[in-house]
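Example record

One chain of 253 residues, shown exactly as stored in the release files.
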Amino acid sequence: MPIFKFILNTIPRPYLLKMSYWASPLLAFFYRGTTFTDPIDGRKFRKLLPYGYGEQRSNALAPGSLSLERHRLIWLYLQNETDFFTAPKRMLHIAPEQCFLDRFKKLKNIEYTTADLHSPLADVKADVCNLPFDDNAFDVVFCNHVLEHVTDDTKAMSELYRVLKPGGLGVFQIPQEIDRATTYEDFTITSPAERTKHFGQYDHVRVYGMDYFEKLRAVGFKVQEINYAQTIAPEKVLEYCLSPQEILPVCTK
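Predicted structure tokens for this chain:
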């Protein structure tokens, strides 16, 4: 047991998402229980791991799949409200999340392409502001928690719109302050410490407000602002450890 405490106390919490899958089965075993359920892998735990930049959120990171609140929410939305897991689709996943990567690859109905500017795990090295794909190429495009890192986010949104097929599904989650009306950005702020102070993380260049959805609409998307946790029974929101304030930006073309 002490080795698990050592790992959790010495590895910075933000880097837990980057842990190799060799560690997650051990953590899942150590934290097994009946209080919480990860809907992505169906495992049950007595508690989840804390996670966060600066202030830690308790019961945020699932030990098995390494999913966070936002990942579990979008999984439930895809599972309950779409044909994502059954209908044939061609999918582009920008900066694929570790909790989804292998699972999406194994789906027989998905022709799955991943892209990232830096990750060696991605199929294609690509800048989200200049994607090397044809117009109207994909039925599904995911680009989650990426745009807050991108200086020209309007260009990135335009590229996501360009490669999505008419009638396709786009999900572009971002960290968002729902009590902030207008997105805050200041490109004179460049140091990691100052970016953490102003934007909440050392490599973020803005904090999105509620005008984010209008930014997506401005490049052509039809956008549904879905607070999906409100459609789920309160006891399940607690069991799945979801954020009740997360708004899913579900986009179509």
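Notes: The mean pLDDT is 90.
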